[in-house]
């Protein structure tokens, strides 16, 4: 008995160390639907946590925990940078989105989200769709990014893709003195909800794209699209995307893809994409900088979806969403210039701006601290 107590104490210390930068981590387990999910709330200084929920066949729980901790931290920074009064949170569901989904699983997930009583709002991310969250929204109001006919603000990948295009224009302006997207070559990794939309827009303006995706369906879809744009689409094998001759690399799939191995291979002048947590470690921002590759911090470029879902919670206004998404252009340019001025990486320049906003708000929160209702009046 004594030995058992000691063992669990050791495990508790490890997990608390692991989540020490986070406010709350919730493990959701529903054997009847097969749901195994983790919700992480990183920081609610700016408001209740907001962030999509990803579904992915993680190899083990540690991998899923690592992902949700990094993703939720990224959301704190994304909200701070985009001037959004929400905090950082994210959910991950362990499972294969192709084979493990069911309406019941997402309803069960909705119940867990509901149990947080407004501390966490969520919607789509990689591996999940609006339909999944229509199911979840049968159990809770704390869902966003569902179709307008179900009372939501619609597909959040639309403004995310728009934000990527503004990021690309700002990058071209900085690098070439001209924001035009046409006539250049872009390497796109991942043709899902965001990547495919970016690819379509680039083709429409006369750009050449080199693409890859793990999914046969996605490759078939882009090959069909390519018939309207002869000679403008090249499909490559998964790992070849890192070494193609392109002007800009656009990661729109998994995180961690900017690492020692891939940075060595890159021939592009810049990296501007939607994928969350593109840098395997923060020091890879310096590796890119040293190689002369301009890196547009992911959480600035991909804020379009967040801007829309946050706006939906304030009372949706499409013109406001467009205006705030457009501001990504100026944010990216300002970060490039700050990085040059202070001889720091673009990541450092972006992080400084966010930390400043969080510190300012923390000060204000202390000043306006609300009294908590005592228990006896609460149940009156
Ligand atoms: N949907 C949104 O509004 C937002 C998405 N993001 C991020 O952008 C990225 C893409 O998101 P979505 O398009 O929504 O996801 P999605 O699930 O619709 O698309 C991802 C695509 O990447 C492909 N893929 C997966 N692993 C790959 C690999 N190793 N190599 C090449 N392709 C691979 C998938 O087959 C799929 O087609 C994710 O990192 C997500 O977190 C960030 C902000 C908002
Ligand atoms: O895009 C969304 O639906 C919510 C925001 C989010 O999760 C993200 O920006 O990664």
TrEMBL record:
* Single GO biological process annotation from the record: amino acid metabolic process
Record carries keyword Oxidoreductase? yes
Q: Which domain of life is it from?
A: Bacteria
Name the SUPFAM superfamilies for this protein: Aminoacid dehydrogenase-like, N-terminal domain (SSF53223), NAD(P)-binding Rossmann-fold domains (SSF51735)
Task: Identify the PROSITE patterns for this entry.
Answer: GLFV_DEHYDROGENASE
Indicate the family of this protein.
Belongs to the Glu/Leu/Phe/Val dehydrogenases family.
Q: What is this protein called?
A: Glu/Leu/Phe/Val dehydrogenase
Native species: Ornithinibacillus hominis
